[in-house]
Amino acid sequence: MRVLIVEDEPNLGRQLRSTLEGAGYAVDLATDGEDGHYLGSTEAYDAVILDLGLPEVDGLTVLDRWRKEGRRMPVLVLTARDSWSDKVAGLDAGADDYLAKPFQTEELIARLRALIRRASGNASSELNAGDIRLDTRSGKVTKAGEPVKLTAQEYKLLSYLMHHKGKVVSRTELIEHIYDQDFDRDSNTIEVFVTRIRKKLGADVITTIRGLGYTLEDPAG
């Protein structure tokens, strides 16, 4: 899953980026509203963390522009104070959730997970496909109750497919959502990761749809 952070406080921006990367997300960081708006308009993100008090262009304006452009990614706004007017303004502009500073990073990550789950139609923090379980809270994967060790990129790919279970996902979409902007993106690595996942979870866990991409189906449904 790929997340955009738009935050002008250098220390907080770096801390959030490091924390989210440690939690298994691909992360891009913008430090002002102009760059944030550009990235959110041109790149694919599963969620955005948007500070309202930004230089160049304020967060509410950025959010309003995204929504008018038809950008539908979930947005969590950060407010400098626990003000009801800030919350109302953010929600009215198209935000999906809000969090007042200062906050605990654990709460931010929990809210982010919930936004991403809801956006893909999943209510539970545990994703299932047959006997495969992926716990988005702990980042653990099991098959028939037995833990399975995945690399960071294998986990990101599996997580994205499980969030979009039953849908055909192209290589391009996978690349856009499991790598950050600065990563050297190579479509051939996707097939490598898929092959590794099949070896660990079963040859039929991910189906290749020739010319279209990959799909992960639920054997039970």
UniProtKB/TrEMBL annotation:
Record bears the keyword Chaperone: no
UniProt keyword list: DNA-binding, Phosphoprotein
Keyword flag Ribosomal protein: no
SUPFAM superfamilies named in the record: C-terminal effector domain of the bipartite response regulators, CheY-like
Residue ranges annotated for the OmpR/PhoB-type domain, each copy included: 124-218
Alphabetized InterPro entries for the sequence: CheY-like_superfamily (IPR011006), OmpR/PhoB-type_DNA-bd (IPR001867), Sig_transdc_resp-reg_C-effctor (IPR016032), Sig_transdc_resp-reg_receiver (IPR001789), WalR-like (IPR039420), WH-like_DNA-bd_sf (IPR036388)
DNA-binding region: 124-218
4-aspartylphosphate PTM sites in chain numbering: 51
Residue ranges occupied by any Response regulatory domain in the UniProt entry: 2-116
Protein name (Swiss-Prot/TrEMBL): Response regulator transcription factor
Species: Sphingomonas daechungensis
Taxonomic classification: Bacteria, Pseudomonadati, Pseudomonadota, Alphaproteobacteria, Sphingomonadales
